[in-house]
Structures are given as structure tokens and as C-alpha cells.
Task: inverse folding
């Protein structure tokens, strides 16, 4: 099973995990790592390290981070170098749909196999509702 | 009709249906609601997260006989969603064969004094109707999503 770690500034990641579990049910091997203003980069690295170890059962870990270029991102990104090749994938811009996608597909291979699909699910879910509603054409569904 | 889930859910199609019941591999959803069936925007919003391979039909309560007739021929793996115990009874009374009623979302209000789960509250009158349904040989269970443990009522 692919492990999941959500690293964010503040408690956003904790809440994303809670919300995902509301929708798909209780999950195992998923950890949120909050990063607070009083903490050092080293402390965050330590916390991410522990989280990776606690969710990795050999199929690798996908780490979600909130902001591209932010501290959570660069610290999580460093594990791409430190970890064995393919053990860790990092995806930025975390949103609920991509986390749920991974929860649903985490039994289907290793972290590196699903990373692209997980990223795509996140991107595809960003929609301007007015445009979508106008596009739903003449369909038997309506 | 190939019914894989018959559910009372006041929210009808929402995240739990789209993501939380995927394992059923459903291909079709029937929504019974006057509010949604009668409103173009509501119908479109209900469809917003539905996967492309899943079809959806909307019916008003008064169209229940049409629903039963039209859906009888449908062999797709189907979910039926109703908004109340009363409407669940209406579906059963059409003669459609179901063997289990799932209570998904029945939100809290002052008359619903029985707490079944964090999303299912039942009034004494509703409990009587559920008993009536159980007497017809239909299991009644509260379960939000597949991963949750089902709470068997009857």
C-alpha cells in the first residue's frame, strides 16, 4: 500500500486528511505533518522523516505539499535526493480530490506508478462551475 | 433492475456517493426528488462530479410508476437515491425488488430523537416505517460509505 504524507503550513493538511476520511472512510498509513512558525527547517525535516517511515510499507510514499516553492515543498523535495530512487514522490498544490484519488488507487502499484494520475486528478478537479454548467449539453442525463 | 445500492440520502449525489461507494462499480444512478427533478440548475449541479461512464436519471415523486416501468429494463449496476423514509416506501411499493435499505444521510432535527450514527437521525414515526419495511424482508442498515462499519437496525 502506498503511504500518504500531507505536509502543509499550519493545520491545513490535518484537516484535509480528516475531510478525506469523512468522504471515503477511515484510512491507514496516512499522516499529516503541520509546519508552525516557531519550528525550524530541521524540525520539519525530522517530522517528515518520521511520517515517511511510519507510512511506508515498501510500496513508497507520496508526499503532498501545499505551496510550490514554499518551505514545506523544499523540505519534502529534499527527500527525492535522500531517499532511494522511486521511494518518494512529491506533489505540490495539494487538494482534496488528489488525496482521495490516491486513497482509492494506493493498492495499485508503487508511488511512482500513480503519481501522474494523482496529479491529473487534482488538476482536473479545478473547474469554473458556470462554464461546466453551460457545457452540460443535451444529454439523456437531464 | 440491477440495484447495487438503495439509499436514503438527503444530499442525493455528493462526495460520499462519487468517492465512497466506488467499489460497487455502479454505472447508473436514479435520483428521486421533486426539488432536483424540477430544477435545471439543481440537476446540472448533481451531475458535476459524476464520472463520464455513469448515467443518471431524475424523477419527481409523482413519476414513481414511470420510474419503475422505465428502469425495469435497465440492466446497468444501479444506485437508487431517495431523500426520505417515505420516499423509500414509495419505491418499494412500485414492486421494484430490493433486499436492503441503506440509511446514508438523515440529518438531525428536533423530531429525530433516535441517534443511529453521526449522519443518521430517526424520528419515532420514521422508525415505525422502517420496521414496516423490515417486515417486507428488507434489511435496514446505516452506513455512510463502504469503508464504514454498517449499523444494522432491522
Result:
Amino acid at each position: 500500500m502506498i503511504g500518504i504524507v500531507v505536509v502543509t503550513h499550519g493545520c491545513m493538511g490535518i484537516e484535509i486528511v480528516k475531510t478525506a476520511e469523512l468522504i471515503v472512510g477511515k484510512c491507514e498509513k496516512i499522516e499529516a505533518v503541520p509546519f508552525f512558525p516557531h519550528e525550524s527547517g530541521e524540525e520539519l525535516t525530522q517530522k517528515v522523516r518520521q511520517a515517511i517511515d511510519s507510512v511506508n510499507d515498501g510500496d513508497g510514499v507520496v508526499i503532498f505539499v501545499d505551496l510550490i516553492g514554499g518551505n514545506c515543498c523544499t523540505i519534502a523535495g529534499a527527500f527525492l535526493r535522500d531517499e532511494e530512487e522511486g521511494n518518494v514522490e512529491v506533489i505540490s498544490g495539494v487538494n482534496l480530490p488528489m488525496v482521495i484519488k490516491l486513497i482509492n488507487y494506493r493498492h495499485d502499484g508503487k508511488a511512482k506508478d500513480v503519481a501522474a494520475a494523482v496529479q491529473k486528478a487534482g488538476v482536473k478537479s479545478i473547474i469554473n462551475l458556470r462554464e461546466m454548467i453551460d457545457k452540460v449539453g443535451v444529454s439523456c442525463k437531464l | 433492475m440491477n440495484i447495487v445500492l438503495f439509499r436514503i440520502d438527503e444530499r442525493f449525489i455528493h462526495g460520499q456517493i462519487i468517492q465512497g461507494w466506488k467499489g460497487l462499480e455502479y454505472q447508473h444512478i436514479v435520483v428521486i426528488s421533486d426539488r432536483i427533478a424540477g430544477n435545471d440548475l439543481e440537476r446540472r449541479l448533481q451531475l458535476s462530479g459524476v464520472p463520464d461512464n455513469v448515467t443518471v436519471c431524475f424523477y419527481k415523486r409523482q413519476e414513481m410508476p414511470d420510474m419503475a416501468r422505465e428502469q425495469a429494463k435497465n440492466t446497468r449496476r444501479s444506485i437508487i437515491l431517495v431523500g426520505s423514509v417515505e420516499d423509500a416506501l414509495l419505491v418499494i411499493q412500485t414492486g421494484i425488488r430490493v433486499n436492503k435499505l441503506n440509511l446514508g444521510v438523515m440529518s438531525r432535527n428536533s423530531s429525530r430523537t433516535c441517534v443511529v450514527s453521526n449522519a443518521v437521525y430517526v424520528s419515532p414515526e420514521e422508525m415505525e416505517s422502517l420496521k414496516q419495511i423490515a417486515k417486507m424482508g428488507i434489511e435496514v442498515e446505516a452506513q455512510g460509505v463502504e469503508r464504514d462499519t454498517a449499523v444494522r437496525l432491522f
About this structure: The helical segments of chain B are 15-20, 34-37, 40-46, 64-72, 85-93, 124-135. The radius of gyration of chain B is 15 Å. The mean pLDDT of chain B is 95.
